[in-house]
Amino acid sequence: MVLGNIGRKSAANDPDVTFDMDVDYDASNDGWRVSIRWEGPTDKIFEDCFGFRGKQWYAGPEQKQQYWPIQNGKLEKYSIISKEDDNAAVSERYWLNSAGYYFHVQPDVPLFVDYHNVLDDHICFIAEVTAPYSTRRANNVLKYDIWFFENAKIAHQHAVDTFLGRPTGLPDYRMIQYPVWSTWARYSREIDQDSLWEFANEIKESGFPNAQFEIDDLWEICYGSLTVNENKLPDFKKLIQDIKGLGFRVSIWVHPFINKDCEPWYSFALDNGYLVLNEEGSPDTSWWNNNGSVPAYIDFTNSAAGDWFSSRVTELIQTYDIDSVKFDAGESSWSPQIPVQNGPIDLHPGNIVEAYVRTVANFGPMIEVRSGMRTQDLPVFIRMVDKDTLWDFDNGLATLVTTLLAMNLNGYTLVLPDMIGGNGYNAKPSKELFVRWLQANVFMPTLQYSFVPWDHDEEAVEISRKYTQLHADYADEIVTAMVASIEQGTPVNPPIWWLDPTDEDALAVWDEFLLGERILAAPVMEEGAVSRNVYLPKGNWQDGNTGEDIQGPIWLTDYPAPLDTLPYFILQD
């Protein structure tokens, strides 16, 4: 049963408002659809609310405090766009619950969502023509579908086939099998010729495998120049060749901004209409590397601007024989507010996210992006936004699995977790946090180091070596799950209820996940813990550590998990 409070702000008999509700049965999918549409002038606000009512709810935007199921969190009139705030880089208009029905809101709705504030224990969908949406819209509209199915798994598969889409190809295999080694968390912006060479040699001498060596911020002469700073990197081409000689591929960090003091590139872009302007005609915005300047965001909704950007990245790659690129940012909120973009005005401001990500995806399967709106089809890794070096739900280790699940159920199944141990902004990771973070990553699609195992003692190195190898051993299993995602639309890392969507215990579990439909990982994510409770859904399971056969469904109470142990289980039937 669905109980809703429809039309809280506008009455259906308002002469300025159009309200339609259609109900139909889809026999081919054995599902019912309720389609609701409100339309009126831009000064009208539409607000429909539905009770959480004891069900488990999933999907919604990527969040800094990523609670799972999502009714355990709280959002207050929250714009559903890809934005910097709260790490909401991935924002889709899709919500699923354990009763087997889902909501999908159309992309042209100026949408806000609210959990628990407008009405207690309710999710509310609000359409309002106000920032960050364009004030130049012709009207306001709230359009959404509610689809009803037997259970959440069937419902999600229908949502993928009908709205979300699925990846069209595989990312780079070596990135799946072996770790990316990034300079970011370890060095921040303090990189130069010597530090990069020393880091590459450290990794080589450690004996750890690699997918690639990633040169992050700050290598440019100014932000947006895409020109190497020869004071820091006097022979960059030779350095890259030397690093490649150690057995690495090399990738480099790139962003979509140009700071105002970065000349002549800034003036060229401005004069040619390559920068996003706001409704007052200003390109001035902000990002995390303002550096006392005023940045602008390249307007990827202008194909000429996208071509200009791409040609400059291509020149950089070809000049220095760089293998691939880490494409950062891309969220719409980096635009000057309220932005004017090309394309249908009712899709502003999200147009630029899709345009940016689709532009850079042309650089091939080794790239990574971090933002997404309607880009689930792209065959590239999408990175979680930076995690903090903490244990808790304030963007710490506790949110690693929940973010993985949220991204997968939004249709983004090719997930690149961020740095093992977090970004180190608040502190460097302890040995315990570093090891537990690595273990939580093992059955995710790839590993990414920046802080290194040998920052700690020999035990940490050996544990890290063990789990880096375990991940490599399961690379083909990861690829199998990715192929299933491409062909069938299934998550690469589903929630454990995927194996039994009627299991009430499984529907509530937030700290376990699957790889495909065969491996269950239950990492320890509590500081000081040497055991944890593990829930296994129905099936015959084999303990990955002991080889013991276990029949589910069952709770394993106080499963022993000292620091060198990752609880994981393999489904045998």
Automatic annotation (TrEMBL):
The keyword Hydrolase applies. Belongs to the glycosyl hydrolase 31 family. Keywords: Glycosidase, Hydrolase. GO terms for biological process: carbohydrate metabolic process. It holds the Pfam family Glyco_hydro_31_2nd. The keyword Hydrolase applies. The lineage of its organism: Eukaryota, Metazoa, Ecdysozoa, Arthropoda, Hexapoda. GO terms for molecular function: hydrolase activity, hydrolyzing O-glycosyl compounds. Residues 489-570 form the Glycosyl hydrolase family 31 C-terminal domain. Residues 182-473 form the Glycoside hydrolase family 31 TIM barrel domain. It comes from the Eukaryota. Gene3D superfamilies: Glycosidases (3.20.20.80), Golgi alpha-mannosidase II (2.60.40.1180). This is Uncharacterized protein.
